[in-house]
Amino acid sequence: MKTDVLIIGGGPGGAAMAMFLVREGIKPVILEQEEFPRYHIGESMTGEGGQVLRRLGFEAEMTKREHPVKHGVKVFGTSGVNSWYVPVSARDKEWNLSFSTTWQVRRSDFDTMMLKEAETRGATVMPGTATKPLLADDGAVRGVTVRWPDGKSEDIETEVVLDCSGQATFLANQRVTGPKYVGSYDKQVAFFSQVTGAIRGSGVSGEEAKDNTVIFYSKKFHWGWFIPLDKDVVSVGMVTPRADFLAKKQTPEEFFRNELYDINPEVRNRIPEMNLVEKVHVIPNYSYQVRGFCGKGFICIGDAHRFIDPIFSFGLTVTMREAEFAAPLVREYLEGKRRNGANPFAEHQVFCEKGIDNLEDMIDLFWEQPFAFATFVYHRYPDLLTDAFAGRIYPTEHQPSPAVLAFRKMLKRTREYDQDDYSVPIGSRFHPERAALWEPNSPVATTEQWMGAR
Amino acid sequence: MEIPQKLKEYIDNHRGSLPPITDPDEPLQIDSLGLIRLVAFLESDLGIRVEDEELIAENFATLRQLGELLATKTPTAPTAEAKPSALEGIPTFSAKRET
């Protein structure tokens, strides 16, 4: 079988990718191995995620399906008494700032809507699992081997493979990309479920809007989320260091039921009882960065190349934005552009990295220097930080802003983009600059030591 | 540098129902949002800018530690109020006198 463009994965990344490609006059094939609807985590998005959906024409459908409307994020900090609030914001063509909204999404419903619409608009959705990449003599990706539901295998030849396989990181695992480095939040584990009977804000808009995201935290690296999914059900999650979970010697469900209340006193105000309507899921090792994630015949999109941490709800937004950025570049590639260099998508690669690097600096400072972070958000750089929180993190969006540069100064880090695709990124848990931040008494002192130990 | 009277008054007025501080080593007991307001007050009313890297809780833990921080600084003329956010309603802690 032959197709110009094969998309691996029919989640929001793959579906958005397909819909943007259809606008470029391309009819992609989407390979999806699961039957939809299916449960998936990643239920909130930032302002710019909502804007992608609006540009794809989904505003009316999102409203019709009654996805909860998010006006902002309320954060309950160390004492449970203080809270701070970051509104969702948007910028117009003249770069004027205004309040905006985005959505919370039950992924089983949202992903089904996205994939169905991608198909309606012209993508072909095929149930199947990619098992191996097909490589040309020069290492270019020229297709994949697929296993169909009946067990038979077939080779699909392509001009471009778009890896939207999410945390499965298909092409990275197949060593088509550069190395996949364990990320700095690799020792965190997420536990999550859904509850009924939770108490929400009472407002229709702004800080007290009933369907806002609420974040709770107290100790470093211990935090929880509260994300309404519909009128009755709220997604609830907790992230803690793995060592804490192991020390308690409880099952994930016991740990979740007991420890969530210890995150912050406000949790009990919002969730008086743990009426779970979903099992307790666990995701460890969710933090990683793949280097060299674009090349001849392929681009990795979203989680397929990088995920830092869920705390600011950037995953879905970044994925859909990367899909939007990539689509015209895929069209140009199919038209014969940039066929001579080693990496036809090198510019896109560094563009995406820079965006997520700005995000990473924000997340890192939030944990390292919470007082400075809060002062930046509320006093020193309020507008620049609503931009960052909204997901306006890319080089074409006045980034890195003075706020992000201030983050870097505080973290004593510089970012350079002239290194090759194999260098250890700052996002790696074992980058020499980071070892001191993460674990002062880490038994692994240097990256070389870690590399030697593998 | 001594704690300026204006600053001492500001701190005493922002500790909720707690009495004025008498011991330079007692905790200020101002919550984190109150500390952000304090930073804004230092800028707008006393012309003292706390540098980004000085924004650590330890510098604001007690009057003594605050005094040590201020001793490193030369006050300039009080600056204009912090530029308000382009979004109405976003708190910008411009350290206006509160009623």
Question: How would you portray this structure in words?
Answer:
The complex is a heterodimer of chains A (about 450) and B (about 100). With about 450 residues, chain A is an alpha+beta fold. Chain A has helices spanning about 10-25, 45-55, 60-65, 105-120, 170-175, 240-250, 250-265, 265-270, 315-335, 345-370, 370-380, 380-390, 400-410, 430-440, 445-454, and strands at about 1-10, 30, 70, 70-75, 85, 90, 95-100, 100-105, 125, 130-135, 140-145, 155-165, 180, 190-195, 215, 225-230, 235-240, 275, 280-285, 290, 295, 300, 305. Chain A has three domains: about 1-65 and about 105-180 and about 290-345, FAD/NAD(P)-binding domain (3-Layer(bba) Sandwich), CATH 3.50.50.60; about 70-105 and about 185-285, D-Amino Acid Oxidase, Chain A, domain 2; about 365-454, no CATH class. In chain A, the strands form five sheets. In chain A, strands 1, 2, 9, 10, 11, 12, 21 and 22 form an eight-stranded mixed sheet that branches. Chain B is mainly alpha-helical and about 100 residues long. Helices cover about 35% and strands about 0% of the residues of chain B. In chain B, helix 1 runs antiparallel to helix 2 (about 30-45). The interface of A and B includes residues 79, 96 and 376 of A.
Summary tags:
heterodimer, A: 454 residues, alpha+beta, FAD/NAD(P)-binding domain, D-Amino Acid Oxidase, Chain A, domain 2, 3 domains, eight-stranded mixed sheet, disordered C terminus, B: 99 residues, mainly alpha, 3 helices, globular
Summary of the model, kept short:
Chain A has helices at residues 12-23, 47-55, 59-64, 107-121, 170-173, 242-248, 252-263, 266-270, 315-334, 346-368, 370-380, 382-390, 402-411, 432-438, 447-453; strands spanning 2-8, 29-32, 69-70, 72-76, 83-87, 89-91, 97-99, 102-103, 124-127, 129-135, 141-147, 153-163, 180-182, 188-196, 213-217, 223-228, 233-241, 275-276, 281-284, 288-290, 294-295, 298-300, 306-307.
